[in-house]
Structure formats: structure tokens, C-alpha cells
Amino acid sequence: MDAAAGPEENASLMWVCSTCVDKVVKTDRSMRDHVKKKRHKMQWERVSETEYTQHMKQYGGRAKDRQPLAVLPQQPQQPQQPHQPPPPPLQQEVAELRSQVATLQAEVEELKARQEGIRVYNLKGGNDLLSQEREQLTEEIRKLKAE
After folding, report:
1. Every domain of the chain and the residues it spans
2. What whole-number distance in Å separates Cα of residue 60 and Cα of residue 54?
3. Which region ranges are annotated with the description Disordered (predicted)?
4. Distance CA 97, CA 46 (A)
5. How far is residue 55 from each of residues 11, 15, 24, 60, 65, measured CA to CA in Å?
6. Which single residue of 2, 59, 107, 131 has CA 20 to 30 Å from 146?
7. pTM above 0.70, yes or no
């Protein structure tokens, strides 16, 4: 709920299905039942009763004639301020973080290349080379034991 709104305003807010613009009781169970029964997406909007009744008068009471909730007038939001560059200390911190990101990306690329190299080594028979070396050593050990 909106903390800035008064209790009387919060009391008149209700949940409305975004798909069919049906108002629903405020419980989770009724929302889930509606979604199962109608096979709608689980998308709900919080709307005041006056906005809902105005919308229904304007667009009709039948569900198929209703417009999506996006048509409902939204409560005015605070105007967004244009993006301003951060103050100088933050700019320096941003530059440091960007350099750290670049370093980490380089490390990731290096690890990927190393991993690819290991995979290629194994595909080219790296394990076979090790097994050949092992066989040679066991033959030398047998010769030494025989002497």
C-alpha cells in the first residue's frame, strides 16, 4: 500500500485483473482462483473505486468490451528530474569501478582462453601422451627389476 495515501484513500483501493478488468476481493485466494478459472496472467493493478467506476461507465460493463487497465488514469507521479552527472567524488569512484570491471573482464577472457586450451589439449590426446609416458616408465621399472 502507498504510505503517502491516507487511510480513507487506501480503503477505497481495490485489486483489478489487468486482463479482463474484473475487480476482485482483496484476498490472495480469490486472485489465484480468478487466474485459474479465467486462465489469465497473474497481473493485478491497484485502482481506486472511483477510477474503476468511471472506466466501466466509459467502456461498458461487458468484459469483452472493456479496455485494458493501461487506459485507466494513473495517479500522478512525481516529475522526474533530468539526469545530472554525479558530483566529482562520485565521478572518480565511477571511473575506478569501470577500470575494475575492465580488469575483471580481461581476467574472465583469460580464464576462458585457458579453459579452451585445456579442452583442446584433452581433445588432441593430452591424456594419451600421459598414458604413453606412464607405459614407458613401467617398462623401465620392469627392466630394472629384471636386472
Report:
1. 7-71, 88-146
2. 10
3. 57-93
4. 39
5. 19, 14, 16, 8, 11
6. 131
7. no
Residue type, 59: Y
Query: What are the tens digits of pLDDT across the range 49-86?
Result: 777 777 777 665 555 555 555 544 555 555 566 666 66
Query: Grid coordinates representing 46?
Result: 491497484
Cell output for 113: 582462453
> Which string of DSSP letters, residue by residue, matches 129-144?
HHHHHHHHHHHHHHHH
> How far separated are the first and last CA of the chain, in Å rounded?
90
Query: Is residue 99 predicted with pLDDT exceeding 70?
Result: yes
Among residues 34, 71, 145, the alpha carbon closest in space to that of 25 is found at 34
Residues 63 and 36: beta-carbon distance below 8 Å = no
**Locate cell 572518480: which residue?**
92
